[in-house]
Write a structure and sequence with these properties.
This is Sulfatase N-terminal domain-containing protein. The protein has a domain at about 20-110. It is about 30% helix and about 5% strand. The protein has four helices and two strands. It has helices at about 20-25, 30-55, 95-100, 130-135, and strands at about 65-70, 105. The radius of gyration is 18 Å and the shape is globular.
Length: about 150
């Protein structure tokens, strides 16, 4: 389920989010940062609803939940979207860690390891080998599905 609401960087574009979410962050001084926090909170609640529905239908035990971003935020004033990559240097569209290092996780009761933290380099377009290894998947191995970078 892709979420594109936080994926904005157009000059002069106001981040749209229901007022009830904005009101939760009235202590945030910057309007654009308050709206960005509200959008993240809205996304979090939406993902929670999906997880709850999977659970209530007995589907969560056979599901793999993956959360990943494609790039860091673009906090530059000219786009005004309120993003921040602190303490990392760089932004979206750049090669420094602020542009490429993003949070990600995989959760499932099917995983062989839990609480495992990896610092391996991955890319959102190449998750299949990671998923297969995480669940001891077999049957889809070929030279295009192997790790190229292992550190």
């Amino acid at each position: 389920m892709p979420y594109q609401s936080l994926h904005v960087s157009m000059r002069g574009m106001t981040l749209e989010v229901p007022q009830k979410y904005i009101d939760k962050f009235d202590y945030v001084v910057s309007d654009v940062r308050r709206r960005l926090a509200a959008m993240a909170n809205n996304m979090d609640e939406s993902i929670g609803v999906i997880i709850e529905r999977l659970h209530s239908r007995g589907m969560l035990d056979n599901s793999v939940v993956i959360f990943v971003s494609d790039n860091g935020g673009d906090p530059l004033q000219h786009v005004g979207n309120g993003g921040s990559n602190y303490p990392l240097r760089g932004t979206k569209l750049g090669l420094f860690e602020g542009g490429i290092r993003v949070p990600a996780f995989i959760w499932s009761p099917l995983l062989n390891k839990s609480g495992y933290v990896s610092n391996a380099l991955i890319h959102v377009t190449d998750l299949l080998p990671t998923i297969l290894d995480a669940i001891n998947g077999t049957g889809i191995r070929n030279e295009s599905n192997i790790y190229v970078i292992t550190n």
